[in-house]
Every structure is written in structure tokens, then in C-alpha cells.
Automatic annotation (TrEMBL):
Its EC number is 2.7.13.3. This is histidine kinase. PROSITE patterns: CNMP_BINDING_1, CNMP_BINDING_3, HIS_KIN. Pfam families: cNMP_binding, HATPase_c. SUPFAM superfamilies: ATPase domain of HSP90 chaperone/DNA topoisomerase II/histidine kinase (SSF55874), cAMP-binding domain-like (SSF51206). One of its GO terms (biological process) is phosphorelay signal transduction system. The keyword Transmembrane helix does not apply. It catalyses: ATP + protein L-histidine = ADP + protein N-phospho-L-histidine.
Length: 486
């Protein structure tokens, strides 16, 4: 059966003013008004199964049901969901907002309508219906326009405010995350300058001590060996590191190395043990030069460790900047084929500060998933809303689970939390505009509404809530292929 509306010819003049008065929509109108409607309307017959209205088409006609049964529907992703079924005579649908002033926004049918059995309709063009409403009920139209425009303006203002608040929160979190590695790099740079100066000083003292050339060469080789050993050193547990420091400290005391207990942690972290220190004694040769050689090697190890710290810190800054760029998609096309995991990971980085240390993040990703067509910046807004809601629901303590998997011809992204859950009576309302379960002042009620419109209207997908205490999951289903334009 085709979903393309094929309307039967409309027959004018078949509904008299008396007939129109039997419809509740027109029962209070005057005889003159009813004659005008009769002259400007017509009747139409639709056989059972016919599509009267298709969602998204230009809203050009206003329909009033005279007889038969109709079903109204909305598209959810690739599926058509029936929203209402009625046989009530006089119900109306179609171009119901044609009386609003022209604001440049195309008027389209907000849903679909199909005849379940043979149906008859009274039909008016959108232009005639809009003209009638504006001319006959000007005050009511002003009130309705004010209500509609006010709701749009309010929604736009609140949405903009929410985006600014989200941007501010993300910026504050990003600055906090950037400050830590930047401060670490700054501290390490200052310490590095001191250690390099100490190395130059100790090297000068070694040279002034009339060290034979072969011994000085051996010390330089030893320095490279020690640094290479430090690079390959395994990470010690706290207990192992403490025991190693005690052993090295005792050794340095026995060999009269000044400040040995300060040097011991440096050598322990570098993977140096007592056997290695004994090798150093052999290569230095002279006990008088041992103290200076140990300190010189300590400065070299600290220098390497500080440079590693700086490399790690600057690498962290670079990764944060890259995550911010990927999150914002500021240097990429608005629509592209993407791997959903990239946006999920960058969103987690952006929200690290908000997630905190009390929440465990579990990533159960199916890396074999194919790329999908999407607007990545918009999807990142969806991930932000869902993750932020999950974090707030857990009040800073719990498990955040991000899971991806394939379901038929869709990629599914599941974002779950271990919070108290959404009460059964509220599950159907979570996607309504301005509805929120958060305390006054903490939620606009637009986050999930925006997410729903991005996923369903913008990507032809679906978003579903499954919730019980300790296990709340939002499942976002995104098609693997471009949605059909028809």
C-alpha cells in the first residue's frame, strides 16, 4: 500500500449550513457565517486504507471528519507510531495553525492521518480557514498568536540560556582540567632548571677533582646506563618503593654519601637497587669521588624524571585541546560519517570534572560497529545531556555505564546509571518540553526534549528510557544508513 496521499476530488456545495451546524466546531456560528463556510468548503471521500495526510507535507488543507474511522500517527525513526484512533464526528486536523501570521516558518502537517474504513470529510483550504479565523475572531487570534509566539520565544530563550550554562560548565571544567597539567609542567620546569644547574656544578667539581679521562668516560657511560635503566624500570607498589628507599638510604649512609636519604627516593623511582650502586662504586674507582658522582647521577635521574613529567603534562594539555575540538566539531563538516565512540570519549573528557572521583565509568564499546551518517556536534549535545543527567541522578556516587552495540540496522548507544530511577508515572513525560524532575532552579526541562528532537527528527533514530531503581538506561538508536527523503 502506498503512503503517498491520493485525495479524491473534493465536491463543493454538498454540505448545507444546517448540516454544518450539526458539527460541534461550527454550532455557535451565524447563518451568514455558515453559508460562507459552505461556499468555501467541500466534501471528500477517502476509501478504507487511504492516506489522507502525510507527516511533513505542506499543510494546505483543514479536515473535519463527517463519518468513518481514522488513525493519527507520528514518525519515530523509521517507524510509524499510531497516536490516536477515533470515529468521533466533527473532530478536526490538518492545517490547524494556518490562522497564525506568516513568520517565514513553513507550515507542515505535524502528523499523518489514514482512513481505517471508508471516511468522509469536510475540507477547507488553509488560506480560507486562516482568513475566516482572522476576520471573524480577531481577539481570539491575537490571544492565540500571543500564546504560541510567547511559548516559542520562551522556549528559545530558555534553550539559549541552557546552552550558555552548559557551555559555561564545560568551559569551567575544561579550564580546571587544563590547569592541573599546566601547573605541573610549570613546577617541573622550575625544578628542572635547578637540577640542570646542579648537574653543571657537580660535573665541574668532578672535572676539578682531576678524574682520569677513562674514569670520566666511564661515568658518562654509567649515566646513560642508569637513565636507560630508569626508562625501563617497572612501577613499584608503595610498600616495594618504601623498602627499596630504606635499602638505598642505608647503603648511602654506609658509604658516607651526603643527603643520602633525600637521594634514595630518586634512585628507587628510577629502578636502581643496591647491586647497581655497587657497580657505580667500581666504575668511580675513588671513594673520594663517590659522593659527587652519586649526586651527579641523582641530578641526571631527576632531570629525566622531570622531563617525563613535563612531557606527560603537555601531552595531557594537547589531548584535552584535541578532545575539545572533537567535541565542538569546530573544524569539521556539520554532517559526516562518524564513529560514535569518538564523540562519546570526547564528551567524557569534557565532563571529567563534573563526573568526579566518586563515579566509576565503565565503557563497554563494540569496536566493530560501522560508521553512521550523523551531525556529530548535535549528537555530542545528546551525550552531554544524558551523561549529565546520569551523574546528577547518582549524586556523585555510583557507576556510569556507556555501552554500544548493533541492533538490526541500527547502532545503539546505551547510557546507564545506578541512581534511584525514574518513577513509573513519570517515564512517559521525561521527553516533554519543560518537564523536569529536578528541584526548582536546577533544570529547564529542555535537555531531554532537545535530545529527542536531535535523535528522532534530525537523525531518523529513536531514544527510549528503561528505568528501575539502581538501573536506569537511555538507549539511543541511530540508523546505519541515511534516512529516506520520502
Amino acid at each position: 500500500m502506498s503512503d503517498t496521499p491520493v485525495l479524491a476530488p473534493c465536491e463543493p456545495g454538498l454540505l448545507t449550513p444546517d448540516d454544518l451546524r450539526t458539527l460541534f466546531l461550527f454550532e455557535k456560528l451565524t447563518d451568514e457565517q455558515l453559508r460562507w463556510i459552505s461556499d468555501h468548503g467541500c466534501t471528500m471521500h477517502m476509501p478504507a486504507g487511504g492516506v489522507v495526510i502525510r507527516e511533513g507535507d505542506p499543510a494546505t488543507q483543514f479536515f473535519v471528519l463527517l463519518s468513518g474511522t481514522i488513525a493519527l500517527s507520528r514518525r519515530v525513526g523509521q517507524d510509524e507510531v499510531q497516536t490516536n484512533r477515533t470515529e468521533q464526528r466533527g473532530v478536526y486536523m490538518g492545517a490547524t495553525q494556518s490562522y497564525l501570521r506568516d513568520d517565514g516558518v513553513p507550515r507542515t502537517y505535524m502528523g499523518g492521518m489514514r482512513a481505517l474504513d471508508d471516511c468522509d470529510f469536510f475540507v477547507m483550504s488553509a488560506d480560507d480557514f486562516g482568513h475566516m479565523m482572522r476576520e471573524w475572531f480577531p481577539m481570539a487570534i491575537h490571544l492565540l498568536e500571543g500564546l504560541v509566539m510567547g511559548m516559542r520565544t520562551s522556549a528559545a530563550a530558555i534553550s539559549e540560556r541552557q546552552r550558555l550554562q552548559a557551555l559555561g560548565a564545560l568551559s569551567a571544567g575544561l579550564m580546571h582540567e587544563l590547569n592541573n597539567p599546566a601547573a605541573a609542567a610549570s613546577r617541573a620546569t622550575g625544578a628542572l632548571r635547578q637540577r640542570v644547574a646542579g648537574m653543571r656544578h657537580k660535573l665541574g667539581m668532578l672535572a676539578a677533582g682531576k678524574v682520569p679521562a677513562d674514569r670520566l668516560d666511564a661515568l658518562v657511560e654509567l649515566q646513560e646506563e642508569v637513565i636507560e635503566r630508569a626508562a625501563k624500570a617497572p612501577t613499584l607498589t608503595a610498600m616495594q618503593a618504601s623498602d627499596r628507599e630504606d635499602e638505598l638510604g642505608d647503603w648511602m649512609d654506609e658509604h658516607r654519601v651526603t643527603g643520602g636519604w633525600d637521594l634514595a627516593p630518586v634512585f628507587a623511582q628510577a629502578g636502581i637497587d643496591v647491586d647497581c650502586l655497587d657497580d657505580i662504586v667500581v666504575k668511580v674507582g675513588s671513594p673520594d669521588l663517590l659522593d659527587q658522582a652519586i649526586h651527579w647521577l641523582g641530578y641526571a635521574l631527576e632531570t629525566e624524571q622531570l622531563m617525563t613529567d613535563i612531557e606527560d603534562a603537555t601531552g595531557r594539555v594537547s589531548s584535552l585541546v584535541n578532545a575539545a575540538k572533537q567535541y565542538s566539531q569546530m573544524d569539521r563538516a556539520a554532517h559526516q560519517w562518524i564513529d560514535v565512540h569518538g564523540g562519546l570519549k570526547s564528551t567524557l573528557v569534557m565532563l571529567t570534572h563534573k563526573i568526579g572521583n566518586g563515579i566509576d565509568v565503565v565503557k563497554d564499546f563494540d569496536r566493530s560497529l560501522p560508521q553512521i551518517p550523523a551531525h556529530p556536534a548535535e549528537l555530542n549535545q545528546v551525550w552531554t545531556n544524558l551523561i549529565d543527567n546520569a551523574v546528577q541522578a547518582m549524586n556523585g556516587v555510583g557507576t556510569l555505564t556507556l555501552k554500544t552495540y548493533r541492533e538490526d540496522d541500527h547502532v545503539v548507544v546505551s547510557i546507564g546509571d545506578t541512581g534511584p530511577g525514574v518513577p513509573e508515572q513519570l517515564k512517559k513525560r521525561v521527553f516533554e518540553p519543560f518537564f523536569t524532575t529536578k528541584p526548582v532552579g536546577e533544570g529547564t526541562g529542555l535537555g531531554l526534549d532537545i535530545s529527542y528532537r536531535i535523535v528522532v527528527n534530525g537523525h531518523g533514530g529513536d531514544i527510549v528510557l528503561d528505568s528501575k531503581p539502581g538501573d536506569t538506561r537511555f538507549m539511543v538508536r541511530l540508523p546505519l544508513t541515511e534516512p529516506s527523503s520520502a
